[in-house]
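Sequence decides. Our protein:
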Amino acid sequence: MLPKTTIMEINKICRNFLWRGPDCTPSHALVSWANICFPYDEGGLNIRDLETVNHAAIMRHIWHLVSGRRNLWVQWVQAKLIRGRDFWQLQVPQACSWSWRAILKERKDAVHFVQHLIGNGAKTKMWSDPWHPNGVLYEFFNEVLLYDSTCNKEAPVANIIQTGD
């Protein structure tokens, strides 16, 4: 994962080398950088777009967090940053690393690619986990309905669905 300013600087260096050459003589770009990043069969030079690669890296970190992967990084994040709270509902802290902030901001895109397998429903949160085909239920109902319902915000799906339903 890289900060956006670093990605922009690396892209600038690559563009300058490609369009100006190693001696950096000024010239005009004949093709846009976006077209350069297309695959060969689409007329590009198959150069990877760093923003897309960075986005994929962040999504992979999110996948490791929500899929229950057991590696040292996930265990550390669970213990120090998430601390038993719901990953999908965490607020972005004012004082946090740029990498943690990037991961939390990417959740809005990642949630569309994640769907929990309910199983017995005991470990899947009804309101905040993406288990329903339409997405996270919390996004479809307002706070009043959640407050008035008999199920609290942390209620598992097992409270409303029984085996065989």
